């Protein structure tokens, strides 16, 4: 294995899902819905395949999808983007982030990450040869430690990676936090790569896109995908939105990673993004109900549940149950209780910082959530 990847372990999501299958555990670990995406989107994909939309797509996207994303982004943020020059379709947001980092970061560049962070960011930064600096968000509110940010950011910083709503904590960056980060980025000439795949799962406050803050459009790449909003995580349709001078790097990297993304799924994605408002409202209503079941359940079981404003995750403190480390606790939970969760220590530069916290996902039907809570009530 190459030096740039030799220090990484196998994906925690795969590991926990495999263990869940082996022990017959209810999987509230890996974040994928156990229900299907909407019929009208599936029909659109079938139709596209039947219509012969099956050869390579244009490298930076099927034109109608570039357009649908620009329309959606305008409605969400007020920003008018050029679908042809400022939007690139990728194979999921994971590829969008990889292409953004590989296309815009030089070896030795300093990049700031907020911990806990989604695991692929660090892998991408290592592949790009970046120097990674971490700033830890701490419970209960996972607020941005402004003084620490000020002392970490400098003229040597090339980029900050943001994720809001935030996986794994469910934290949403407030306007005050984003404004402070923005002014530091402008002052120090820093780029922002912002993963907003959970933007439609915002329950307690409105989602704010960094790109919409004054002075930020020209230094921000906004990443999103279809998977979470349309319960189609296996389709792997994502995108990167940014000004032309940044898009150029993203497209060059994308051209050499995958070249282009699945054609019929892009056609169907364009149909999905034009869903009426009622679709998005219903999604949020359904998820609010699921969230309430899980959060109330976890509290009744005896966990300290940290507030989650968005995403389909919630993070809890497991230490009331007497085990020292998150990984140990998750293995016990799968083997002895029959429920899978995700240990968070793998999302920190210093794993010690995450040892008390585990993440549960509520992107499951209500019966599954209730059954998981019952198992924990009985056996924990
Ligand atoms: N994004 C999902 C999660 O956080 C799944 C990740 C994966 O399987 N790589 O759980």
UniProtKB/TrEMBL annotation:
Alphabetized Pfam families for the sequence: Aminotran_1_2
Keywords per UniProt: Aminotransferase, Pyridoxal phosphate, Transferase
GO molecular function: kynurenine-oxoglutarate transaminase activity; pyridoxal phosphate binding
The protein's required cofactors: pyridoxal 5'-phosphate
Cited InterPro entries: Aminotransferase_I/II_large, Kynurenine-oxoglutarate_AT, PyrdxlP-dep_Trfase, PyrdxlP-dep_Trfase_major, PyrdxlP-dep_Trfase_small
Aminotransferase class I/classII large domain mapped to chain residues: 26-375
Cellular component annotations (GO), alphabetically ordered: cytoplasm
Membrane-spanning intervals of the chain: none
Gene3D superfamilies documented for this protein: Aspartate Aminotransferase, domain 1, Type I PLP-dependent aspartate aminotransferase-like (Major domain)
Name this polypeptide is given: LL-diaminopimelate aminotransferase
Organism whose genome encodes this protein: Trema orientale (Charcoal tree)
